[in-house]
Amino acid sequence: MAVNFATLPRRAFFALAAAPAILAAPGTNARIEELTHSFEDFLYRAPYKFGGKEVDRVTVLNVRCRLAAQSGKTAEGAASMPLGNIWSFPATDLPYDTTLSAMKLLADRIGAITLGYREYSHPLDINHTLEPEYLRAAADVTRALGLPVAVPKLCTIVTASPFDAALHDAFGKLHNVNAFAASGKDFVRHDLAHYLNAEFTGEYLDRYVARKTVARVRMYHSVGASDPLSAADPHQPIGDGLPETLEDWIPYSGVTAIKIKLNGADLIADSDRVAEIDRVTTRAQAKRNFTSWIYSLDFNEHCPNAAHVLEFTRRLEENAPDAFARVQYIEQPTARDLSRDRANTMFEVAKLRPVVIDESLTDLEALLLSREMGYTGVALKACKGQSQTLLMAAAAQKYKMFRCVQDLTCPGAALVHSVGIAAHIPGTSALEANAREYVPSASKGWEKRYPGIFNVRDGYLATTGLSGPGLGTS
Question: Is 431 helix (H, G, I), strand (E, B) or coil?
Answer without folding.
Answer: strand
